Amino acid sequence: MTEKKARTPRSRPARQWPSMADVAALAGVSSQTVSRVSNNRTNVDAATREKVLAAMKTLGYRPNTAARALVTGRFGAIGVISFDVGAHGNARTLGAVADAAREAGFSINFMGVRAQTEAAVQEAFQHLMLQSVDGIVLIESQMLDTTSLHLPPSMPVVVADGDAGHAYANVDFDQALGAHSAVTHLLGLGHRTVWHLAGPRDSFAARRRTESWRTTLEAAGAPLPEVLHGDWSAESGYRVGQELAARPEVTAVFTANDQMALGLMRALHEAGRRVPQDVSVTGFDDMSEAAFFQPPLTTVRQDFDLVGRHCVRLLLDQIEGRSDGPRRMAVEPALVVRGSTASPARG
Amino acid sequence: MTEKKARTPRSRPARQWPSMADVAALAGVSSQTVSRVSNNRTNVDAATREKVLAAMKTLGYRPNTAARALVTGRFGAIGVISFDVGAHGNARTLGAVADAAREAGFSINFMGVRAQTEAAVQEAFQHLMLQSVDGIVLIESQMLDTTSLHLPPSMPVVVADGDAGHAYANVDFDQALGAHSAVTHLLGLGHRTVWHLAGPRDSFAARRRTESWRTTLEAAGAPLPEVLHGDWSAESGYRVGQELAARPEVTAVFTANDQMALGLMRALHEAGRRVPQDVSVTGFDDMSEAAFFQPPLTTVRQDFDLVGRHCVRLLLDQIEGRSDGPRRMAVEPALVVRGSTASPARG
DNA sequence: GGCACAGGTGTTTACGCAAACATCATTCGG
DNA sequence: CCGAATGATGTTTGCGTAAACACCTGTGCC
To answer: Which InterPro entries does the UniProt record give (chains A, B) (predicted)?
Structure first.
């Protein structure tokens, strides 16, 4: 391993990848010409290009991204920070961002954040900030606080499904519209009012859904019931559902996501209250399972793929210096009516 | 990318990050000393180290991973290739691998693969192979064909939830045990035989579950019904469920995952066949919603976190040259009995 | 007091690539 | 037919880091 010659080769791990110099030697050109071919520059003779490409193939050459990043200052990578990917919406958004990024020639540097604490988000940022990404997408970032994250102003950031009040570019569903359509649907069926099983208090998406629920009820002159909070999980929906099931005046519930709606319906069923005959339930997300719940769930469909594409587009705008594009984008959700909602029983 | 236009778009961005040299200048030491501090070497005087750390903090210094990777040949990154992250199991595994990797100081380079074709997997590999990762984890990789993937032998690879027959290290659930326990549970309840709603034909995990179902039935001397295939989705479970519901002899179904079981139960319900009184149903995965299905699903729980940790461990063994560790690991699943299974009605 | 030795630090070099610049051969307008 | 513009290629340089090596100082030992 360690040879003791005059100017010895280094005792590094043996070179397993050919470099531009190797390709250049085989093709009988300079390494710069190899670089030009590698980067698809136009000013290379067709015959020369062929020679180089052949040599690349022979040696199995692949450009070294580290060296390229070092010299260009660009990494071809987008960082994605997300909370629990076990949550349906987060996973879908991640997948959509990844797809869109790949189409744009970027890879995804993923950081999962377990705890919803600011320190955890901070740490994730710090990791990604080691200059190894060109920009960052933050999914479900209710803890985001602009002032405490020491981001260099030059680091492009897009927030998906988060607070629209901060300084970063933002892509989100039109939560207000989604909540409004669900609540209006229920009121239109003849319910006197609509209860609300909300998401966690520190989620902006959840808060916006709650606000829209409130204003819709107020506009309709319906009484405003107390808000009950879950944590997005089916289990929390079940717990809250047990409380709601105990109140006979509850005939309609607008739930902030599908998973909680599932738990809610389970609790109602166990308490002997039928959905939709006794209680109507709506969800939010339209996860792929929602159509097969018992009963099939009326819910608000979100187009996660579109969100992913928008995120990447806004991020690339920043990365490539096109800051004239829109900084905030909203994706319109659509109400999907299924079997979990009906007119209240005449009682 | 014909960027024939102006020669300007490639102008190098202004230096926005301080380098070692900047820190060294401020601290009044050589850049090599900064390097030593940065890498936590011991042979640095305590006072000097303090000076350097202070300078780093003042300048907001962060080591440049590209430069470090260039010189060390290591990237501190693990590539993860996964199919649809909308599928519960894949998302959970991804999250677990990401967590385990972060604990080990590695970041995750994620590549989603839309189409389950060999070409798509190939392309994902090629992307990751641009030397930007130290190893690769492949999730749900039924299409994996060792001979056609041109991996350098030195690229560490671990396959999760895939074929145990190939040359790569492997972490998987003990599918046979899981299927066996579910089928045995159903037979033990008094069912004459157990039908099987299987996963896609090209999934090794699905095939192993099917095989184990078959051998368990044979060992019990139970008749062997025809196998019906879904594609993991609730929708496919619903379609197959309509067929099964039409056969009165079906009293118990072992389903290859929870989502299909949901669709199946929906179809049974619509056909007027009650679960579990008329038909018992088991799932596989124990997704967090399964306990709130109607009825709550008896299923086989998989510990995805453990799989993720094992994957990272096996991968690090290879990356760091410790190839003496185990190359294959199995994680034991556990049967969770809930309300979707019961003894057949005396008919 | 000399001498080996170790710990602390600085100097040089190379990693692989692409930008900037240099060189040479063409082509074309007048 | 000359001089300038254009195109194809080679040469030099530097990105930020860590390894290898050189060089100091002080210490302990005889």
So the answer is: HTH_LacI, LacI/GalR-like_sensor, Lambda_DNA-bd_dom_sf, Peripla_BP_I
pLDDT at B45 over 70: yes
User: Is 0.70 surpassed by the pTM of this model?
Assistant: yes
Percent of chain A with pLDDT over 90: 59
Residues of A with CB below 8 A from B273's CB?
Answer: none
Residues of chain A with CATH 3.40.50.2300: 76-172+304-331, 175-303
How far is A304 from A100, CA to CA, in rounded Å?
Answer: 11
Partners of A159 in the β-ladder: A138, A170
Q: What is the CATH number of domain B74-173+304-332?
A: 3.40.50.2300
Q: Of A153-167, A267-281, A283-297, which range is least confident?
A: A153-167
Candidates A73, A95, A292; nearest CB to B262: A292
**Would you list the DSSP string of A42-98?**
S-S-HHHHHHHHHHHHHHT----HHHHHHHHS--SEEEEEES-TTSHHHHHHHHHHH
Q: Where in chain A is the domain with CATH 1.10.260.40?
A: 1-63
Question: Which residues lie across from B159 on neighbouring strands?
Answer: B138, B170
Chain A contacts in chain B segment 47-106 (CB below 8 A): 60, 62-67, 69-70, 73, 75, 77, 80, 84-86, 88, 91-92, 94-95, 98-99, 102
